[in-house]
Amino acid sequence: MKKNHLLFTMIILLFIMVSSCTSKSDNNQNLEVKDKKEVASKSISNATDSLDFLINDQTAKILVEKDSVDANTNIIVSTSEITSNNLSVATNPITPLISIEVSQPLEKALKVQIPIEKKENEVVAAVQYQFDENVINTLESVFT
Predict the structure, then answer these.
(1) Distance CA 48, CA 19 (A)
(2) How many of the other CB atoms lie within 10 Å of CB of 8?
(3) Closest CA to 85 of 31, 12, 4, 144
(4) For residue 6, what is the enclosing H or E element?
(5) 25: pLDDT strictly greater than 50
(6) What is the spatial distance between Cα 9 and Cα 142, in angstroms, rounded to a whole number?
(7) How far from 121 is each of 2, 8, 18, 114, CA to CA, in Å?
(8) Which of 66, 119, 120, 124 minimizes the number of CB atoms within 10 Å of its CB?
(9) Do 93 and 16 form a contact (C-beta atoms < 8 A)?
(10) Are strands 135-138 and 124-130 parallel, antiparallel or unpaired?
């Protein structure tokens, strides 16, 4: 297995999942998670900055580009264990749900690096999950 880092842009809620391209026929699709647990927080200014946190005992990182904020902005990272999923696409989440909260709007997208191990026959995607509509959207991601 080869270790990879994913870079994500403009993330509010995300988790990484291994997915095959089959769909479920169940109309009751949803994602169930345990309560959020804060794993990191930091106040950032308009300088280039970063925030490290642990995912599955490995260091992940949020990168904030210079001039992303106008004033001091708080970033809070929380995780929630995924207890079950009944989404329309067959998935196997390999990280907990990661929530990134910012106290003010950002001028530039956040970049998130998450170390994962991917087998050759797996498809890996970063997604945003909308709890109110039980919908997942894929996010732009890059393997490095």
Answers:
(1) 34
(2) 23
(3) 31
(4) strand 2-9
(5) no
(6) 10
(7) 12, 22, 10, 20
(8) 120
(9) yes
(10) antiparallel
Specify whether the CB–CB gap between 78 and 53 falls below 8 A: no
The pTM (predicted TM-score) of the whole model is: 0.73
The vertex-41 CA angle with 36 and 42, nearest 5°, equals: 160
Higher per-residue pLDDT: 14 or 82: 82
Strand-pair partners of 64: 49
Burial of 115 (0-12, 13-18, 19+ CB in 10 A): middle
Predicted confidence (pLDDT) per residue in 55-73, tens digit: 989 999 999 888 888 778 8
The CB density around residue 19, as the number of other CB atoms within 10 Å, is 19
Round to whole Å and give the CA distance between 40 and 113.
15
Banded pLDDT at 143 (limits 50, 70, 90): low
**CA dihedral sign, ordered 99, 104, 110, 115:** negative
